[in-house]
């Protein structure tokens, strides 16, 4: 079987299948059974496309006898049934305790199809033949990705790439780059993408579009918006050439154009993304458009996008959309509607954002004690460094200043905590430094304002 395993590692599946088929036809009973199991294994690598042939090979192997309690046979059967959508009880009943790495790989693949991602990680075992070893790392990467453990997923994809050849190596490096972007590691993403390009001769058009899209994301993350725009335009051109137009590419183009201050062009790119989007994707585009309009001060426009978004079924960030709508209403001076919407957002989980809007309304109405309580709650509820956290910290400090520099220790502590999160060019940066210095002076003088 050594020649077959080498062919599989090289990606020469036709040769491997031909040799295995010949061995199944003309080998001894034991050789035929082994060949058919491996043939089923090869067809299983094709996913749904290989289901029928994999089942047929397993059935022929079973007819040769001796496989009823074979862990590999049962693991392969479990994988195929899980891929078909069979239930956990039926699939898991097939598994037998085993230390065989191949059987455990197929058990892990079945567990992945069942959505049992933690168990995938516990099931995989070292010692696989080369054609499965890189796939095991890729499977580990996909499980970690589903669990939100993106850094570990990136490392798993890179380990898989070290073991894989040709296009498989290239694809794993693209996956690794995508994961590095998820954790904000732009430089690591660029290194993976550079390595990916060196792993293939001629890139498939669709994959080249993906690579340029990832390059654009990396350069935007690294604050190189002009280079990012060049890369996303290449991605769009390649998508046009290949005929597969993803909604995420013009969405990214819009984000880059907004970073460059080109609002009208950015919104036009978002409109293209909206035209390409299908089902739940539309919600993501509408939310981007709404936030862009809010930042631009186009509050009526933002309200329209958010109302359209809230009519979309199944959007996962509905609570934040309600909070953004509350902000759009607040910015228009529609305080009662904004307050009602903020409470709706809080009931659905956007507590910090809702508290922030309620604080703004109270502040504008000069109910400073009430505003301070809302802002403090928002700062406590929000994740450190988030937009809501920064805004709440700024406003706690500002409100305490308006109350006559009450609690200078708190002003000092909050100003120092939030300043590293604010760009020096932001007007809040200078204001907070001035507030901090005044609070320090009050503390040095050992007096308290009335």
TrEMBL record:
Highest taxon, organism lineage: Bacteria
Pfam families assigned to the protein according to its UniProt record, in alphabetical order: TPR_19, TPR_8
InterPro entries, per the entry: TPR-like_helical_dom_sf, TPR_rpt
PANTHER family: CELL DIVISION CYCLE 16,23,27, CELL DIVISION CYCLE PROTEIN 27 HOMOLOG
Descriptive protein name: Tetratricopeptide repeat protein
Species name: Thermus antranikianii
């Amino acid at each position: 079987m050594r020649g077959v395993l080498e062919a599989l590692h090289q990606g020469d599946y036709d040769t491997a299948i031909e040799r295995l088929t010949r061995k199944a036809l003309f080998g001894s009973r034991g050789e035929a059974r082994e060949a058919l199991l491996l043939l089923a294994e090869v067809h299983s690598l094709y996913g749904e496309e290989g289901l029928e042939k994999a089942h047929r090979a397993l059935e022929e192997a079973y007819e040769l006898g001796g496989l009823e309690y074979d862990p590999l046979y049962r693991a392969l059967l479990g994988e195929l049934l899980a891929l078909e959508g069979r239930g956990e009880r039926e699939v898991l009943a097939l598994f037998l305790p085993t230390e065989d790495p191949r059987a455990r790989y197929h058990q892990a693949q079945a567990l992945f199809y069942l959505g049992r991602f933690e168990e995938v990680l516990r099931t995989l075992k070292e010692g696989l033949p080369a054609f499965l070893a890189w796939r095991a790392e890729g499977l580990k990467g996909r499980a970690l990705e589903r669990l939100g453990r993106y850094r570990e997923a990136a490392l798993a994809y890179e380990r898989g790439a070290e073991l894989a050849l040709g296009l498989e190596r290239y694809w794993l490096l693209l996956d690794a780059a995508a994961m590095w972007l998820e954790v904000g590691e732009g430089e690591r993403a660029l290194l993976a993408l550079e390595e990916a390009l060196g792993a293939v001769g001629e890139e498939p058009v669709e994959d080249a579009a993906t690579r340029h899209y990832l390059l654009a994301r990396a350069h935007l993350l690294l604050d190189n918006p002009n280079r990012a725009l060049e890369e996303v335009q290449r991605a769009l051109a390649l998508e046009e050439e290949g005929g597969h137009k993803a909604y995420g590419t013009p969405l990214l183009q819009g984000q880059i154009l907004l970073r460059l201050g080109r609002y009208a062009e950015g919104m036009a790119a978002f409109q293209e993304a909206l035209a390409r989007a299908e089902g739940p994707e539309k919600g993501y585009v509408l939310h981007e458009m709404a936030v862009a309009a809010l930042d631009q001060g186009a509050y009526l426009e933002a309200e329209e996008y958010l109302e359209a978004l809230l009519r979309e079924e199944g959007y996962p960030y509905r609570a934040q959309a309600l909070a953004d709508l509350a902000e759009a209403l607040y910015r228009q001076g529609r305080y009662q509607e904004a307050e009602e919407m903020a409470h709706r957002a809080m009931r659905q989980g956007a507590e910090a954002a809702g508290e922030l809007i309620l604080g703004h309304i109270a502040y504008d109405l000069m109910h400073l004690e009430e505003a301070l309580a809302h802002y403090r709650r928002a700062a406590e509820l929000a994740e450190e460094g988030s937009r809501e956290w920064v805004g709440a910290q700024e406003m706690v400090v500002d409100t305490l200043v308006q109350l006559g520099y009450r609690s200078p220790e708190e002003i000092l502590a909050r100003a120092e905590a939030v300043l590293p999160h604010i760009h020096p060019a932001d007007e809040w940066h200078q204001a907070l430094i001035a507030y901090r210095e005044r609070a320090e002076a009050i503390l040095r003088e050992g007096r308290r304002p009335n």
